[in-house]
Recover the amino acids of this structure.
């Protein structure tokens, strides 16, 4: 049997990365990245129109250009025959929605709207729809508490409808010009297929959509301009994960150097596309992504009320099951903060002399310590807690410093706090009846810091599986394309063959685990004391800091 | 009336400093310092005999040499006529005891003992009499709980008898050769007068002596070798503060270039000598010494049970009243730790470029913040807590860090924690019925860091009085000499004229105080939570660190 191939394209925040994968084993035959020329529009539009604070826009032309360059480049690198490609799929950041004009083109492509901020794509990290998020929270509290609960108890400014209603509030004239409002990932997929379809999973995760219920009625009841939206600005078939959203148009096939008519599934959100890519498709396993922050994701056949889960959705992560998403608000960020702000010249000089990064030198020294030897413990809340406690007002804490405390000891305490944090998340699942024995790792730090990875294993007592240093979301998109194209019957089957696990395993060291059990008990006690209202000093300090800011 | 002068000599840990003071106004006419050539014997004796860990000895010849050089140099600098000097006095570290042979010479001056560690002076920071301190604690708990209470609930390894009994235990042969055992400060005074006298105040503070009671009986009852000690190895008249211990011998007068027969009071402990020097002689006032650690001292006509006072003695600080001593185990130390371990190259580079110390640059930046603006709070326990909580096992804590937290914000939090710590001490006095409105400042940091001083005023709400940058203990000794010589009737009267206050005052800023009241409430809550047994995590972390040490 001849080899067949699928293409996955991961649309990240600053670039898109295309991979060409072999369906039999997931081997990445070719890979190419295209950076968005406009990157993120924070301060002004391309024509110079200034943007208010907390805005973050993108230019949709960048997505097309990235498609046109990355796919042919990845194909060329792969050397695979054009006709052996059987599917292509996209994953995307979200909610990253955009308005289209009645001609199907993005509103911002029209000269008359090119100077209007609301005509552009609102990137996931566009955080200015504060009023709208508040309104949605209020509505959800009143009418749909179970919806709110499934989103971690709070609707953020990032969601699909907050961004849409912001247009309605701030530029009603432009709002009237919107013919369709969709996730940019859906728009790219529509460019590939020419079909009016959308990702059901994205609608579930970012658009409050629920299978069997639809969009919540309170939206149309509150905003008369949105009445009938399902058949107007939100029109298009909602396609389940790995279904067939359409087939590659002849024109696009020509442009990309691919066979016309190959299968295209609906786009998937980037974080969720990584789940099958890392081989997580059923109970007993979880995906832990260690980057600047962390993600913790898993699927279950049934619903469990997990304390502090950011998101629990049915058919939003993988089809026909519940997807659970959680995570820590800082991890790599916290270590980077330490390296940037707390490491003396004596240490940075040695790192420079030995040609190491500060992270490497501190990790080398920290690795020479035994667990508990530093006498320190920290709470991993430098960026708040968005897992079990769901409180962004919490902040960092370190206990145990003496006049002898060294920088690498504090670095190790910060690193251990990340491991304690994920153990706390695992135990929140366990308390809700979700058990797991294996954690699949992804993310930059999982490749770079073996001490952190081993510490996570020692602290959690779990077996960890390492992964290859490839774009997991892109491989995930390719897996979905393989399933949509019929190369496999199920995502689980496809993932079993095509995942990007490296074969490397980490096992807990029993002696270290025993010491960490003691330290973790201390962590939990501090976690609960500072996080569950016994002493809200962190919240009060933050409030006072805001009041006093600028009075110095 | 012609001017008259007194000499005070402050025997510190590494050097002695002599001052020549005018009795009318305390003006320091001359000043000279002599460094001890042997400094501290930590590792070995002068002949190479090695010393075990935690030992700290001194060589008594250094004290004589320092006397012979510093006094003539100070006199020469002062230009005052030799015959206008009417008294001379010594203050000394303590307990810093030493053994004498039957010829009145230090045992270590004898060739046969020069290689025996126990023949030397045991400096106050000699910490190896651990077993002996434990025995004394056990005895005091059983027989003299009120003695224990007057010493902060715990007898340290530093006390006079722990060091004596260590000789008995570890070198019984040398113990039998001891003809007298005395504070080195008493020995120096005896060299000046030729009289067999001792400082009653030092005996009270470091030797368990109580007026009307004597030395506690349990010592002689437990250690038969010490029976009758008051008339043997501890013989000599115990002289009250500022009494006449004797008169300068002709031989010593010749050597020092002073009139023979001038008055010499008993030596006083250095920290206590500073009390009258800073003008603290009655209720309503306290002395706060801001150095690597801090001291907080005051006098009262009557006894109050102040929580966590390190020492409450009658006639041990000033005559015929109760002296209260307290203090924080770290202050300057804690800021130095931060500067040494936690300041990145970007900050140290700027300090170097601008020719500032790191302390200066961080203080400059910290001073630009408003109180509370950092969002941080710290507990000042990097070296344990030896004030209200009397627990050396406690450790440092900082709360409130975010990814935006800057080094100068943490520096300010550490600085503020020092001010919170002293407010806690002031409130412990207040709770026991001791009120004060004015705090007199001394110590290196009080001259160097105006931000810290102002913060202490803002946090405590007290008026602060600054002092001149002179050796306060030496001026204190000179004041005691002036009183002994009859220039003044009382120490209070002498101190009123001769103190070294600078005239500089600091007053609390009401707006800052209001914010600090909120932060101090947070401090107290954390102080009690971590310090009073609600969560002993600091003690457990320290124990675990000791267990795990060397297992890395």
């Amino acid at each position: 049997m001849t080899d067949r191939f699928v293409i996955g394209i991961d649309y990240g925040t600053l670039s898109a990365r295309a991979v060409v994968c072999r369906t039999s084993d997931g081997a990445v035959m070719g890979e190419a990245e295209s950076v968005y020329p406009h990157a993120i529009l924070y301060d002004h539009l391309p024509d110079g129109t200034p943007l208010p604070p907390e805005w973050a826009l993108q230019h949709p032309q960048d997505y097309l250009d990235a498609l046109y360059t990355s796919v042919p480049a990845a194909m060329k690198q792969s050397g695979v025959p054009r006709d052996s490609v059987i599917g292509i799929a996209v994953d995307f950041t979200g909610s990253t929605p955009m308005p289209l004009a009645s001609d199907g083109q993005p509103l911002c492509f029209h000269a008359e709207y090119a100077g209007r901020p609301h005509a552009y794509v609102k990137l996931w990290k566009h955080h200015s729809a504060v009023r709208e998020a508040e309104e949605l929270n209020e509505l959800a509290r009143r009418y749909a508490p179970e919806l709110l609960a499934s989103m971690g108890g709070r609707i953020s400014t990032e969601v699909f409808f907050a961004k849409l209603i912001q247009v309605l509030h701030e530029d009603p004239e432009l709002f009237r010009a919107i013919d369709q409002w969709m996730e940019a990932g859906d728009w790219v997929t529509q460019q590939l297929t020419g079909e009016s379809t959308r990702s059901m999973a994205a609608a579930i995760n970012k658009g409050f959509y629920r299978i069997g219920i639809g969009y919540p009625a309170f939206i149309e009841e509150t905003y008369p301009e949105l009445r009938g939206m399902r058949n107007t600005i939100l029109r298009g078939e909602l396609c389940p994960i790995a279904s067939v959203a359409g087939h590659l148009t002849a024109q696009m096939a020509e442009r990309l150097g691919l066979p016309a008519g190959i299968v295209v599934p609906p786009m998937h959100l980037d974080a969720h596309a990584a789940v099958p890519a890392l081989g997580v498709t059923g109970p007993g396993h979880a995906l832990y992504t260690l980057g600047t922050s962390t993600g913790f994701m898993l699927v279950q056949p049934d619903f469990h009320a997990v304390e502090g889960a950011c998101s629990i959705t049915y058919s939003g992560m993988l089809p026909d099951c519940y997807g659970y998403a959680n995570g820590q608000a800082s991890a790599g960020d916290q270590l980077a903060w330490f390296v940037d702000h707390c490491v003396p010249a004596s240490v940075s000089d040695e790192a420079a002399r030995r040609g190491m990064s500060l992270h490497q030198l501190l990790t080398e020294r920290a690795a020479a310590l035994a667990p508990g030897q530093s006498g320190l413990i920290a709470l991993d809340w430098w960026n708040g807690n968005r897992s079990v406690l769901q409180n962004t007002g919490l902040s960092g804490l370190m206990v145990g410093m003496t006049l002898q405390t060294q920088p690498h000891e504090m670095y190790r305490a910060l690193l251990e706090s990340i491991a304690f944090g994920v153990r706390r998340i695992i135990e929140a699942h366990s308390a809700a009846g979700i058990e797991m024995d294996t954690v699949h790792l992804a993310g930059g730090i999982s490749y770079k810091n073996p001490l952190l990875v081993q510490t996570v294993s020692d602290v959690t007592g779990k077996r960890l599986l390492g992964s290859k240093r490839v774009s997991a979301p892109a491989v995930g998109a390719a897996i979905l394309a393989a399933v949509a194209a019929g190369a496999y019957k199920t995502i689980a089957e496809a993932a079993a063959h095509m995942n990007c696990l490296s074969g490397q395993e980490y096992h807990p060291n029993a002696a270290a685990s025993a010491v960490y059990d003691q330290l973790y008990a201390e962590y939990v006690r501090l976690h609960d004391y500072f996080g569950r209202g016994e002493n809200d000093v962190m919240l009060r300090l933050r409030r006072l800091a805001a009041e006093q800011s600028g009075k110095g």
